[in-house]
Specification:
The complex is a heterodimer of chains A (282) and B (96). Chain A is α+β, with helices and mostly antiparallel strands and 282 residues long. Chain A is built from 7 helices and 18 strands. In chain A, the strands form 5 sheets. Chain A has an 8-stranded antiparallel beta sheet with strand order 1-2-7-8-11-16-17-18. Chain A is globular. The chains are: A alpha+beta (282), B mainly alpha (96). Strand 9 of chain A pairs parallel with strand 2 of chain B, so a sheet runs across the interface.
Chain lengths: 282, 96
């Protein structure tokens, strides 16, 4: 019998599913919920007293192991993706209008902000100290959710096979196949997975308008503005939720033509209503 | 020996000593080694050292990059092979 617990964290809906076989599932579920709160207090850019906010203010911080790890993962992804994934998009997001929690962002407002903001500035991690170059601020929203899903799954796993879904970033543990729904252009596809992770990135939600122009939260670091992709949404299957989150963003920015040739298992939904399956899903 | 002879010998000795000291000072000053040449050699040595350090730094960076890649490969879990099924989903991944 699957136990399910749903709650809000990191500005999104979180679901914890576990098939208890051992230990105390209630305790494991509570530990996973606490872990989300702990990590949000570290990585939220909307909490003035979070570690990330302090880093963005002070430019250098002797950070907790979790913040160091997530920044390292983000920098590694930046290097591997030749800059398509980049944690230094904070100011570009703010300039695009995403300057407060999404619930508080005005859905329609005059265009008062600059449209493009440079990304890709210097970030170094050495001996537990994260240092930002002048004018650089980090946003760890997406990758932070993937990391939190993985951490929560680690805490749930002793109770039994489990799944954590943090606003589309899914982490799986155990030998049970979990049926996970993926939205396509014209309905729903169900994928069965027993491990690894999935993530979905798109511009079909978290969007708003400024001066009548639609904007969304997926910034192209090369332009410093919301990405002008011909894809609406990308779902990726990968070794873990963090990798899936990174690849989903990278394929979204790559656009339909390039993404269609990837070996990564992905579901691409184009802006003109096509669904393309790639990699092992072909 | 007359007093004039003694004076002459003393004079010759003093002049010889003076010539010896002047010659010694000139040789010690090594006027054939120019200052410009010395500075140039120092700069060249520094430039060569800088180049060596740059090459070593480049090699170290490449080594670190390779080690990071190896660590990443070692730690990255392989992607699972998903199956498309007709079961109702227990959860849905969507843009949040």
């Amino acid at each position: 019998m699957t136990e399910r617990h749903a709650f809000r964290a990191m500005g999104t809906d979180v679901e914890l599913l576990v098939e208890p076989v051992d230990g105390d599932p209630e305790r494991a579920l509570a530990a996973a919920v606490d872990e989300f709160e702990r990590l949000e207090q570290i990585m939220s850019r909307f909490r003035p007293d979070s570690e990330l906010s302090q880093l963005n203010r002070d430019r250098a911080l002797e950070a907790s192991p979790d913040l160091v790890r997530v920044v390292e993962l983000a920098l590694d992804a930046r290097e591997r993706s030749a800059g398509r994934f980049d944690p230094t998009v904070h100011d570009a997001l703010v300039a695009a209008g995403y300057d407060r929690t999404f619930e508080a962002v005005e859905r329609d407002a005059p265009d008062a902000a600059a449209r493009t903001t440079p990304c890709g500035g210097g970030v170094t991690v050495r001996d537990g100290v994260v240092t930002l170059a002048d004018g650089v601020r980090l946003d760890l929203g997406g990758i932070g959710k993937g990391y939190a899903a993985e951490r929560a799954a680690e805490l749930l796993a002793p109770a039994g096979p489990c799944l954590v879904n943090a606003g589309g970033d899914v982490a799986l543990r155990g030998d049970v196949e979990w049926p996970v729904g993926v939205e396509t252009a014209d309905g729903m596809l169900t994928l069965a997975l027993d491990r690894g992770g999935l993530a979905t990135s798109g511009r079909d939600r978290r969007r708003w308008t400024r001066g009548g122009e639609e904007r969304h939260h997926l910034i192209d670091p090369r332009t410093g503005a919301p990405a002008a992709s011909d894809l609406l949404r990308v779902t990726v299957v990968a070794g873990d939720a963090v990798e899936a989150e990174v690849l989903a963003k990278v394929l979204f920015l790559a656009g339909a033509d390039e993404a269609a040739h990837t070996d990564t298992a992905a579901v691409l939904v184009t802006a003109d209503g096509q669904t393309v399956l790639t990699g092992a899903l072909r | 020996m007359t007093d004039a002879g003694k004076l002459t010998r003393l004079y010759v000795f003093a002049v010889s000593l003076l010539v010896f000291l002047v010659t010694w000072a000139v040789v010690a000053a090594r006027p054939w080694v120019t200052t410009a040449h010395s500075t140039g050699a120092g700069v060249a040595a520094l430039a060569a050292r800088e180049q060596r350090i740059q090459v070593q730094s480049l090699v170290l960076r490449q080594l670190q990059r390779a080690q990071r890649s190896q660590r990443r490969l070692a730690s990255a879990a392989p992607a699972p092979a998903p199956r498309i099924v007709t079961l109702p989903p227990l959860t849905i991944t969507r843009t949040s």
